Predict the structure.
Amino acid sequence: MSTGTDLEILALVRARLARRLGEDEALSWLSDTEPLAEAGVDSVLLIGVVSELEQELGVALGDDAVLEAASIGSLAAVLSQGERS
């Protein structure tokens, strides 16, 4: 998949996190700015999800950028600005 719009990436991040957390909905109860920890996302889960998304979107992110992404919105923004591989 080539890099999509910011809204597409945001939806993809939500869906991927929800799947990993065993949620049916795409975390609709969590706002784009709330901490991922509110949904039970820890650093190990986050790195796994980001690795999948990097491959799917064809981008590469530094570890610092990933760990600093504290919300769904900030993670989507980092992915949309990632270096194309």
About this structure: Residues 6-84 form a domain with the Non-ribosomal Peptide Synthetase Peptidyl Carrier Protein; Chain A fold (CATH 1.10.1200.10). The first helix runs from residue 6 to 21.
